[in-house]
Amino acid sequence: MKALILLAKAAIGFVWLVLLVNIFHPFPGVAAMALYIMTGFLLMMHGLQMLIFIGAFGDKIKMSRWEKWSILIFGIFSLLDIRRKHMM
């Protein structure tokens, strides 16, 4: 399970890399606009996940600063990793 979570985080990291490259060096045509929309959507969804998780479990689970920010970056895959670490 740990290897699958790591692989999923690498895939999401690659997606963020493409989205950030598009911000600084836009792709040609309508691809840039589509990637801008995807960037906003991904940021909103992961931000919402982070706020909901910290709001619901922030006082029950001791999380490091990196774990909180990793939810914003990796979304559900980070939540699965945090659950795995804190359930042991």
Protein architecture, described:
By secondary structure, this protein is mostly helical. The protein has one domain (1-87). It is built from four helices and no strands. It has helices at residues 2-24, 31-57, 65-74, 76-87. Helix 1 (2-24) packs antiparallel against helix 4. The longest helix is centred in the middle third of the chain and has 27 residues, at 31-57. The radius of gyration is 15 Å and the shape is elongated. It starts with a helix and ends with a helix. The mean pLDDT is 91.
Radius of gyration: 15 Å
- Proportion of residues in extended strands: under 5%
What's the β-strand tally? 0
**N→C terminal distance:** 14 Å
Number of domain modules: 1
Give average pLDDT, whole number: 91
Number of helices: 4
Principal-axis shape equals elongated
- Secondary structure category: mainly alpha
Give the ordered list of helices and strands: HHHH
**Share of residues in helices:** over 70%
Transmembrane segments: 7-27, 33-57
Pfam family, one: DUF1145
InterPro entries: DUF1145
Protein name: DUF1145 domain-containing protein
What is the element layout, followed by pairings?
Blueprint: H1 2-24, H2 31-57, H3 65-74, H4 76-87
Keywords:
mainly alpha; DUF1145; 0% strand; DUF1145 domain-containing protein; elongated; transmembrane helix; membrane; transmembrane; 88 residues
How would you summarize what this structure contains?
This protein is mainly α and 88 residues long. It contains 4 helices and no strands. The radius of gyration is 15 Å and the shape is elongated.
